[in-house]
Design brief:
The protein is of the alpha/beta class and about 350 residues long. It is about 25% helix and about 20% strand.
């Protein structure tokens, strides 16, 4: 019989993050979106040609979709609330248990949907890249897919492929910061209507290809400038080249290189980057430090297979400086992170990090 093992929690000792909240007991961040069951085949020499079979000894399982960023935020100590639909099948039970019990994601606004199959994505990881196949049945008629009334939160994170949801506008009116990203346009028409939605966004984090396509520009720097005319803070992710950012309110610009590590699996790295940037914003970091911290989190995540369970927690962040993987000169650029590491993670125990291994047997 196929069973799914929930990995042990590797991120004990989370702490509250300093920063303004609408109410003392409010969340740090609230999200909505679809959680997927991610199944990741690793160690593949390539994709199987038609009519053939490949055998590999690597198979991981983990929460995917919106769970990528929810887990990454929770592991940094952010009080994270999620509204999502979970099937009442085996995969749905595994995802709910992993997020709620292991990862401390607050699921009070989520629900189990009777007789609905949990969405699944199969990822074939090879040559530091991956190909994916997804099964995502539509929700039953009458399921709105979002909360009627969002909880109090300091920030929220939304995808603006279609619109800025009403609940996010409500939170913004109450003082929350709206962080936004968007996905690939499968039509490749890159409608500029998307840019009009930025009127309801405080921080926008597209990648360079998306940013240039939507702004009809030819360089990431020009796209950054064009987007800054529409939204207060813009971050353009450059992949292996790091990221650039502009705060239109102050005129502050920043650029930061990617963490110089060997990438094993880039799944979810953009979500982990966003989580790091949200943390840096709530912690009051200057723009340049927010970029470097986001790059640090994303760089640590790509050293592991799995989008969500590859996200770093503070023990791994603390231990990284002791690993010798990056030169002392490069590590000096991240000295500011030390003051944010929980005291429990500094010292001898920090270098012996136990990471949950997402497995499906």
């Amino acid at each position: 019989m196929t069973t799914v093992d929930a990995p042990a929690d590797p991120c004990a000792g989370r702490r509250p993050v300093p920063g303004p909240r609408p109410l003392p007991d409010a969340l740090d961040v609230f999200l909505t979106g679809q959680v997927f069951m991610d199944m990741i085949f690793t160690g593949l020499p390539g994709l199987p040609p038609p009519g053939t079979e490949l055998v590999t000894d690597g198979l991981g399982s983990a929460p995917g979709g919106i769970a990528n960023i929810a887990v990454a935020m929770s592991r940094l100590g952010l009080r994270t609330g999620l509204s999502s639909a979970f099937g009442d099948d085996l995969f749905g039970s595994y995802l709910w248990r992993t997020l709620a019990e292991q990862e401390n994601v607050d699921l009070r606004w989520s629900r189990r949907v009777p007789s609905w199959s949990t969405p699944v994505t199969v990822s074939l990881a090879h040559a530091a890249d991956r190909s994916m196949v997804t099964y995502a049945p539509p929700l039953p008629a009458g399921d709105a897919g979002h909360p009627a009334a969002p909880p109090a939160a300091a920030t929220c994170f939304v995808d603006i492929d279609r619109s800025v949801p009403g609940w996010a506008r409500t939170l913004r009116e109450a003082g929350a910061l709206v962080f936004a990203d968007l996905g690939w346009d499968p039509t490749e028409t890159w409608s500029t209507d998307v840019l009009d939605r930025l009127a309801h966004v405080d921080v926008f984090l597209p990648n360079a290809v998306e940013a240039m396509a939507y702004t009809r520009t030819t360089t990431a720097e020009d796209a950054l400038a064009a987007l800054a005319e529409r939204v207060p803070v813009v971050v353009v992710k450059l992949g292996a080249d790091g990221a650039i950012a502009l705060d239109a309110r102050t005129g502050e610009r920043a650029a930061a290189p990617a963490l110089p590590v060997r990438a094993l699996d880039p799944t979810g790295a953009g979500d982990v980057f966003a989580a790091g940037f949200v943390y840096g914003t709530l912690a009051g970091m200057p723009l340049a430090h927010r970029l470097r911290f986001a790059n640090l989190c994303a760089g640590l995540s790509v050293r592991h297979h799995s989008g969500s369970l590859g996200a770093p927690c503070w023990a791994e962040i603390a231990a990284f400086g002791e690993s010798g993987e990056v030169s002392a000169d490069a590590m000096a650029e991240y000295a500011f992170v030390v003051e944010h590491i929980p005291a429990a993670e500094i010292g001898g125990d920090a270098v012996n990090v136990t990471r949950a291994e997402p497995t499906l047997r």
